[in-house]
Amino acid sequence: MQISAAIPNDLVDVSNGKFMGKTDLGDGYTRWDWLVQHPINNYDVSLNISRYQHFSDRLGNLPLDPYELPEDHEDTAQEGRLPGGDGFILRQRLQAIA
Description:
The chain has 2 helices and 9 strands. The protein is α+β, with helices and mostly antiparallel strands. The strands form 4 sheets. A 3-stranded antiparallel sheet has the order 1-4-3, with no helix packed on it. The chain starts with a strand and ends with a helix.
């Protein structure tokens, strides 16, 4: 399943699946493209549109791609839940179960 959303340039779409890229449509809108490679119910498809910030990291071959709202950055960085914090809790939890 392919998911595409054309939204104003200052916003970000976070949807199901793997991020395939974004295309500036030249009219003040950007198209965000996602690919769901495994079966999914159509009622589970989601479009999350806001002014998200994106961080990326890897744990071995596993990509970690958290998105957060700008107003949440200070709190989550202090709690160490994002790259650049004192510790990356998600990484620690994944390593614990790996």
